[in-house]
Protein 1
Amino acid sequence: MVTIEDIYGIDNTDLYTFHDSIRVQKGDYDYYYREIDYPESDSISWSDLTPVNYASKKTRLLDLKETLKEVDIFLISKYMQFGDYDNSCMVERSNYKLFLEEYKEEKGIFRIYGGYGSSGIAISIRYLLDLANEDKADEIIELLNNLNEYPVIDDEDMSNMEYDAFLESLDSFAIRECNDLLANQYLIEVYDYDQDKLKEVLLKSDRNLDYPSYQIESGGSCYIDTKRLIKKVTLIQYIECLIDWELKGDLS
């Protein structure tokens, strides 16, 4: 059984209360706003969450209990929180995805959204303390504590997401950039090339490197070292990808 002391002891989590108002229609043209202190859908905005700040750690546990008598408090793990311009990487995105896959149908679990891709998961403390949810609550508390020991729920899932980001960046800009680098390296004027063939050659080159040519940066974006990516591409491999081209100089 989960206790408030169990929740209080979880590192790398933040506590928030929720407050919002919803528009209520009274007639065709008449309406009013009703205040609510609990989400009415499974997703909530960051703007509707208020951090719970206590005077000191000594009084925090007592204050938690007193606050819960009035309103619910929501637990948010830093290991499942990310945005486009923060210090997050693919760790938080993978954890977020896997946690929702497992617990999104639970009434006390909420997806958080905000500007610039800001996302997270809010977990109702009242939900965790409810004996009717004992099994799920125990699982969630164990998971949150385990993240403080090792911050990734599933290494394979995170790795797959990183590779997908690599493929997306490859299609977005890197194939074109690699073509320009290879054309310059082999003194070839390229008028047209087969992008799919060149992509396969580049992927083979990446697999033959000592370590991948890409890395996930802050905000979840993927950086590709294109000069390193083409390192294992031979002239013959490159020419087989070309459709319309001519030599600019003597290769001998």
Protein 2
Amino acid sequence: MIPISKPDIGAEEKAAVFEVLDSGMIAMGPRTAQFEQAFAEMCGVKHAIAVASGTTALHSALLANGVGPGDEVITTPFTFIATIDAIMYVGARPVFVDIDEETFNMDLEQVESVITPRTKAILPVHLYGYMCDMDRLQTLADKHGLKIIEDACQAHMATYKGKRAGSFGTGAFSFYATKNMMCGEGGMVTTNDDVIADQCRLIRNHGTRRRYYHEMLGFNFLMTDIEAAMGLVQLKRLPEFSEKRARNAAYLSAKIESVVTPTVKEGYGHVWHQYTVRVDGGRNRDAAVEQLGKAGITAGVYYPTPAHCQPHVQRVVGNVQLPVVERLSNEVMSLPVHTHLTQEDLETIVSEVNKL
């Protein structure tokens, strides 16, 4: 089988992990601090705060920006459920807009129409590694005095007009095992705001900055030095990973003819966490996934049930109609684009997809 994803772990990552194990400093320590500094430099921000997961990064970012009970956060339903769960964790209400058919990101034409006096933040998701139109989003946020919290969990090193994901507001990243760079698990909050950074550091460690003195209610959102050691190596290799993914994506787009391939607009640096096509024309997407599986290719569906259709979300937001996301969730299919693909793999993927 050609898998949909495969972690790229080499000898250097293994050596880094064993060095931490041998040191005896397993919990959050010097490697975590080094990882934070290196990640902040990559994103072009003042602060990066390491946490336990992408979910806890989103949770921390919302809390640090003062989002809480009674507030509303505008976002997209076409995302992994953690985006929405984090909003609900802090007691806020997600407010959904539909998505753009070409980019799969939130339709910014609809955002202003759902802003209310309770709106506290806009939470764009840079889905599949492709950033939102941040100029338009920033204009809306400035006009209405709203916070921007970027879900950049799939967008490590992605760019918009030369500026990195995670540098426009408060960013949240994931280092889950399938991400473009990974630590097995872990996350990062990025910001240029000293106060937000300080709050995130308190939130992640039981509200303490000195041992056994707790200024606020916090959580155990700590990263380990084991994860950070792996992250440091992966971050160093990230440009190489990104180049390979881009090269694979370009080949697929040039050769695939049977389905709708992704569009990348000028000024955007896509990092291809997923290479997502559309099985359009009324064809059966699930049958296409099954057909590729029988041919030895694992295709993924991200995401078959949009967030506004999930039972626990519906109980909060009610019956929301979003026709574009509901249609595209039945058409999207992600193909392997990871760094382990060989030329033979790519040719096989193209050949089998073109038989659909």
